C-alpha cells in the first residue's frame, strides 16, 4: 500500500489538464465514488495495527494533495474564462449606488459660462504654463512690478521666462494676437500663486476672464454687462458697486462689489457689516495692451474682467474654507449637485 500511495502522489504531481473534461476525469479517478481514494480508505481497514498510524498520515496527505490539485486547476480555468469575458453579462442592471457628483466649482463655472454665453460670449482656453510675455509684459506690467516677485509667482529657476500663469488675463493676449475684433469671449481656467495655504488662500484657484473688444465699446457696456451677470448669478435684486482700482492692463480700472447676498446688504459677519462683498476686477483694456497684441487702439476699444470661481462658489454655497475644494472629501463634494437646479 505504501508503494501504491507513492505512485499516486507522483501521478498527481505530474498531472495537468488541458481541458475541463480532463480535469473532471482526474477528479473522478481520485475523488469519485469508486475512485482511488475510496478504494484505499476501504483497504485501510485491513492494515495491521502497528502500521495504521503511518498509513493514516500518508493516506490523508494523498487525499489533500489530490484536492489541492483539483482546486488549483479549476481556478486556472475560471480565471481564463473570466479573462475571456465569458461571465460578463451586459443585461445586468447598472449599479447606481456610487454615482459621482459634479464638483461645486464646476457647477458654478458651468453656470457662469451659461450666463455669459446667453449674451454672445464664446469660450476659449489657454495654457497653464505660460511665458513672461503673455502673463506680464504684453499686459503692460512694468519690469519691476511686484507681481513678478518670486513671492507671488511660480517661476522655474533655470528659465525665469517660464511660469505658471498667475491669472487668466494671459489668455486675453493669446486671443487678441490671433483674432481680429469683434472679440466677445470668456476664458475659464486654473491659475497659480505662491501663497501660503489657508482657509482664504491657496496656491492655485480658478478664474473666469472676460474680454470684449469692438468699435465704440464703452465703460457703460462694461457696467451693464457686470450688472446683468450679478443679477443672473445671484438674484434679480442684487446691486453692484464699482470702486476705482488699478491693474496695469486696464485703464480705467475698477473693483466690483455686489450687495451681500447673505444678508441682502443689511450687514453681516460675511460682508464685515458693510453690506458689500468684492467679487471681481475689471476695466477698459489699456491701449498699450491692444497695441502689444496688434490691435489699433485708435479704432477699437474694449473691456475686460476677471473673477475667482472659488469666490463666487463661496458666495453661492456659503463655503467658508477654500481648502475644502481640493481635499476630495466625498462628504463635502456630494452636497452640491442636488442643491443646484
Ligand atoms: N487679472 C486680474 C486678477 O487676477 C483680474 C482682472 C482681469 C482685472 C481683467 C481687470 C481685468 O486679479
Description:
The structure is a single chain. The chain contains 11 helices and 9 strands. With 341 residues, the protein is an alpha+beta fold. It folds into 2 domains: 84 residues; 233 residues, Bira Bifunctional Protein, Domain 2 (BirA Bifunctional Protein, domain 2). The longest helix has 36 residues. The radius of gyration is 36 Å and the shape is elongated. The model has no long low-confidence stretch (mean pLDDT 92). Phenylalanine binds next to strand 8 and strand 9.
Structural class: alpha+beta
CATH level 3 topology of the largest domain: BirA Bifunctional Protein, domain 2
Average pLDDT reading: 92
Looking at the structure, what is the overall shape? elongated
Q: What would you give as the CATH superfamily of the largest domain?
A: Bira Bifunctional Protein, Domain 2
Beta content comes to: 15-25%
Q: Outline of this structure?
A:
With 341 residues, the protein is of the alpha+beta class. It contains eleven helices and nine strands.
Summarize the helices and strands and which ones pair or pack.
Elements: H1 2-14, H2 20-31, H3 36-44, H4 49-84, H5 104-117, E1 122-123, E2 129-131, H6 132-135, E3 162-164, H7 169-178, E4 183-192, E5 204-214, H8 219-233, E6 240-247, E7 250-259, E8 276-285, H9 287-292, E9 301-308, H10 309-317, H11 330-333
Parallel strand pairs: 1-4
Antiparallel strand pairs: 2-3, 4-5, 5-9, 6-7, 7-8, 8-9
Helix pairs in contact: 1-4, 2-4, 3-4, 5-10
What brief labels describe this structure?
341 residues; alpha+beta; BirA Bifunctional Protein, domain 2; 2 domains; seven-stranded mixed beta sheet; two-stranded antiparallel sheet; 11 helices; binds phenylalanine
Amino acid at each position: 500500500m505504501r508503494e501504491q500511495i507513492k505512485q499516486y502522489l507522483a501521478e498527481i504531481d505530474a498531472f495537468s489538464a488541458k481541458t475541463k473534461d480532463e480535469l473532471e476525469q482526474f477528479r473522478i479517478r481520485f475523488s469519485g465514488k469508486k475512485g482511488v481514494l475510496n478504494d484505499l480508505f476501504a483497504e485501510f481497514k485491513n492494515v495491521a495495527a502497528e502500521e495504521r498510524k503511518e498509513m493514516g498520515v500518508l493516506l490523508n496527505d494523498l487525499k489533500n494533495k489530490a484536492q489541492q490539485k483539483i482546486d488549483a486547476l479549476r481556478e486556472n480555468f475560471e480565471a481564463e474564462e473570466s479573462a475571456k469575458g465569458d461571465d460578463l453579462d451586459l443585461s445586468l442592471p447598472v449599479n447606481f449606488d456610487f454615482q459621482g457628483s459634479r464638483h461645486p466649482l464646476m457647477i458654478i463655472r458651468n453656470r457662469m459660462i451659461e450666463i455669459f454665453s446667453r449674451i454672445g460670449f464664446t469660450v476659449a482656453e489657454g495654457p497653464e504654463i505660460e511665458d513672461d510675455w503673455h502673463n506680464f509684459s504684453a499686459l503692460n506690467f512694468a519690469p519691476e512690478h511686484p507681481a513678478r516677485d518670486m513671492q507671488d509667482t511660480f517661476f522655474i529657476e533655470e528659465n525665469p521666462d517660464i511660469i505658471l500663469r498667475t491669472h487668466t488675463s494671459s489668455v486675453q493676449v493669446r486671443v487678441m494676437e490671433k483674432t481680429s475684433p469683434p472679440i466677445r469671449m470668456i476664458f475659464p481656467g486654473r491659475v497659480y500663486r505662491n501663497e501660503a495655504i489657508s482657509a482664504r488662500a491657496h496656491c492655485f484657484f480658478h478664474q473666469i476672464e472676460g474680454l470684449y473688444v469692438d468699435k465704440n465699446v464703452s465703460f457703460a457696456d462694461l457696467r451693464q454687462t457686470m450688472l446683468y451677470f450679478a443679477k443672473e448669478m445671484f438674484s434679480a435684486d442684487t446691486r453692484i458697486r464699482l470702486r476705482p482700482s488699478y491693474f496695469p492692463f486696464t485703464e480705467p480700472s475698477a473693483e466690483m462689489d455686489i450687495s451681500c447676498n447673505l444678508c441682502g446688504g443689511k450687514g453681516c459677519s460675511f460682508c464685515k457689516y458693510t453690506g458689500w462683498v468684492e467679487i471681481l476686477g475689471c476695466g477698459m483694456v489699456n491701449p498699450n495692451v491692444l497695441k502689444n497684441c496688434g490691435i489699433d487702439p485708435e479704432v477699437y476699444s474694449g473691456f475686460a474682467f476677471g473673477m475667482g470661481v472659488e469666490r463666487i462658489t463661496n458666495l453661492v454655497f456659503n463655503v467658508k474654507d477654500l481648502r475644502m475644494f481640493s481635499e476630495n472629501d466625498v462628504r463635502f463634494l456630494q452636497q452640491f449637485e442636488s442643491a443646484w437646479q
